[in-house]
Amino acid sequence: MRAYIPNFITCLNLLSGCLACLMAFEGNFLWALWFIILSAVFDFFDGFAARILKAYSAMGKELDSLADLISFGMAPGLIVFKYLSISEIGITSEIASYLPYLGFFIPVFSALRLAKFNIDDRQTSSFIGLPVPANALFWASLIPALIQLSDKYTFLPFICIALVFIFSWLLVSNIPMFSLKISKCTWKGNEIAIVFVCMCILILSISNIYWGISLCICTYILISLLSNLICKKTK
Question: What are the DSSP calls for 142-189, one per residue?
Answer without folding.
Answer: HHHHHHHTTTT-TTHHHHHHHHHHHHHHHHHS--EE-----SSSSSTT
